[in-house]
Automatic annotation (TrEMBL):
It is found in: Membrane. Belongs to the 4-toluene sulfonate uptake permease (TSUP) (TC 2.A.102) family. GO terms for biological process: protein ubiquitination. It comes from the Eukaryota. This is Sulfite exporter TauE/SafE family protein 3-like.
Amino acid sequence: MGWKWRNGLLMGFSFLLLVLFFVSAADRLLKAESGSTYEEQEEDQDPSSSSSSSSAIYLQEVVNFLWQPDGSSYQHVWPAIEFGWKMVVGSVIGFFGAAFGSVGGVGGGGIFVPMLTLIIGFDPKSSTAISKCMIMGAAGSTVYYNLKLRHPTLDMPIVDYDLALLFQPMLMLGISIGVALNVIFADWMVTVLLIILFLGTSTKAFSKGLETWKKETITKREAAKLLETNASEEEDYSALPTGPNDADREVPVLENVYWKELGLLVFVWMAFLALQITKNYTSTCSRWYWILNLLQIPVSVGVTLYEAVGLCKGRRVIASKGEAGTDWTVARLLLYCMCGVIAGIVGGLLGLGGGFILGPLFLELGVPPQVSSATATFAMTFSSSMSVVEYYLLKRFPVPYALYFVAVATVAAFVGQHAVRKLINILGRASLIIFILAFTIFTSAVSLGGVGISNMIKKIQNHEYMGFENLCKYDV
């Protein structure tokens, strides 16, 4: 599995460089059509120096395209809050996005951002910030619902605290990086990254869903044969980890809380919060600004290292996998930690839940779908709330709109969890969670990718600046 993830990252980086070449070439071509060509200059040059001069000019164009110290194309667009058809349609889409996203453990940001941009009328980066607020509301509601549920087949909570402890600190670190990159990166760069990640993860999740569906079918047949053979005897049948079993049995919330692990997770969150608030009183790019940013590394790495060392030495286990163990080598742990950081970067950069990466990754680890969804959402509650704090300090969203859509997402997540859990209990197929996960990711890729490509074409046609923004000169 490690090689697949590494190869995927390498292919994604190569594709990003290829797109960069074509975008800069398209920009150059349009400038040439408008009369800004270099033909007149090249006529006076010697043929021997023409080729090298042309290459140097083209390279300079690429550099200017990507970076202009005073260049910026970003402006806030915050429509006035008023009740109308846009608000109604946006609320309906947001409701279903939160319901499906919470069930799949991905938050629903891939549906929120296009809705906020195309229907409500926010600019893409403000939409990203409000999307993170909605994810926080949906994740909080889902965690409260899940804290009353038990593991499908084992005597433990449906949330795997050890799994969360391994990934959540890295997720938080990635979020801080992603929020900064959200200011720096141009919209077209975000679009390319999104399409690469979402198409890959949705395909992987769908394949995992088909595999789980087949296992469930075999389990059901074996159960039917067992009942026919032992019709005269009363025997309890224990389903495979992909079946519903006791997943809907509710217990008191406090019974499902592991206080030591929860305390460490809250410590990471509080430490990051203190650093972010303190950083708000420093000048951007000042010495203390960078010192406070770098202090996040020992906090997150220290807690993750505590869990990783325990897994390596066998003192701690990922109990939700049951008897199926994992060979926790140093290389494997490093890979998973990097995936956690990448999930956080993607979440902070795109305004999405880190579950878009964590969900498929947990499934690859062999974690049951219910536990994968619950644990990814649990981790997202910490990361999304931290993103909201960072975006608020950067003044990236209007508070009234954010409060309204948080309320919509909170109610929708609770309704979605209840409805889908009942459906799984009736059908006996937990693979529905995986299919919802794959559907939500693919829908997000199409919607966000389509909006991003459309905006990119318009900017190329209008010869707008499409390079990196200057974080040190960012004006909130």
